[in-house]
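hi!! sorry for the late reply, been swamped w classes. u asked for the two structures so here they r. pasted raw, havent cleaned anything up. first the sequence of the first protein and right below it the tokens
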Amino acid sequence: METLKYTFQAEKRVKHKAHVGVVGSANLEVIFLPTNNSFSTVDISSKFEGHSAVWKSILERFFAENNCLADIEINDFGATSGVISLRLLQALEVANLDNE
């Protein structure tokens, strides 16, 4: 099991907590929490070790394109890069829904 931690400068605060995905075979869970920080944090727990360069690349691209400000928790059980990107976008969408 590997634990990774990243921070990214960001400005666009998410509106709400979001929880998407499940921890299961070739999938992952992503949780977004609003924060008062001036940077986003990403804490990853992954079943597999040695993929920090891949995670860093995916996250750098995500934050470059979305600039979202949140505390993010990711629990990975072998998701592919495509699934990771999809879940991050899905969580961002849910975190910014207007619940009226």
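now the second protein. again sequence first, tokens right under
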Amino acid sequence: MKKVILNLDILKEENIIAKKNRKYFSQNRIFVVNLMGSPGCGKTTLIEEIIKKIKDKLKIAVIEGDIATVKDARRISKLKIPVVQINTEKVGNACHLNAGMIRKAIESLKSKKIDILIIENIGNLVCPAEFDLGENLRIVMTSVTEGDDKVAKYPPMFANCDIVIISKIDLIKYSKYNLKQVEKDIRRINPKAVLLKITTKRKNTINSLIEILMREKGYAD
């Protein structure tokens, strides 16, 4: 039996496209956020709240990623901002977005003035971690309702991000969620990550995230 070792970088082509995306965003002064997390952790709701808080100051666009349906895009479109839906059911039901998909979606947005582009990645705590989309900021959400073991069980996702958001924090009193252990896991895996605890039931809890986005675009108080 002969053993064959493959040293092929299967992400090489995608990384080249991601580099092109990043160059385009930089040239057009678009700050790009890649928002990742499990289904139901609150990504779309968070995007809605961000839009409501800053759309009067900054031009926002959204790319929505799902395997099927345009439900999230419809939600976002009600806020009167540009939104593009990407569905992967015709490309093998891919469980993540890649740089090539974003490249195509950008074509639909080129006529728009955009300050911040938010990409809602497909709900998944595994695959999206490996794919560079050309973004400036990577955010991973995990919710109290998912349980307190997700950071420890899916370390690559949390190791490769700039901000970790623990969402639905208002429900912690109704659960056995061990917040201290989750914080410890985050610090062990990614000590440089900014940790935010939010609930959209209390709108002020997302202010720290809003401040980060505003600061990146030169709107700091």
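hope this helps!! also noticed smth abt the second:
The domain at 12-215 is CATH 3.40.50.300 (Rossmann fold).
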